[in-house]
Amino acid sequence: MRAVLPRLHRNSQKRIYRPGATYFITTVTFERYPYFEETILADLLVHNIWFARELKQFDLYGYTVLPEHMHLMFKPIGPINHSMAMQNIKRVFSLQANQIIFSSAMSWDRDSKGEDIYPRLQGRKQQNPYATLQWSNLLSRLRDEFKQKHGPNHLFPKFKWQKSFRDHLIRGNADFENHLRYVYRNAVKHQLVEEPTAWPWMWVRGMDRRQS
Question: pTM of this prediction?
Fold first, then answer.
């Protein structure tokens, strides 16, 4: 019987796609610019993670947002794989971050070409239009906060991610716990706080979800 090999991503990183697998993801900002020292953008990224969890259907186990990078642990449970989920998170966040930075009046739900950035959002609006309204209100509030904080003539650069991301296929319970512990303590490792729970942009399963 011929062995079935795992699917590999076509680029040099050779991503492995396995149904039911959990992944530890690391993605960084362009040239490691510390965009997330701006708490408004850090808050926006956290909200995007939670929103993507519902929209793209994955079990979320933990995340931490540091000044110039993010770690994320999740397991896809729907039709999309982890690469598709990350592409969506990064693309949507970049669009909305720059709308906030530059006070764009563009629709939150559409990109510069007028295309829907949430392919299945219309159905979700019909199921729960209030949730969509809350999301739009949040984005408007963050845009107003940024404008008030930095003024119209700020020199804050356009947001941009470094291309691609690093992924690690979690193998077994010990590997899972080690990586989740890494997420939990990452802000301490970088000497940003003395206690893990003091970092507002970190969450692991078992903690209450933080609101901002």
Answer: 0.81
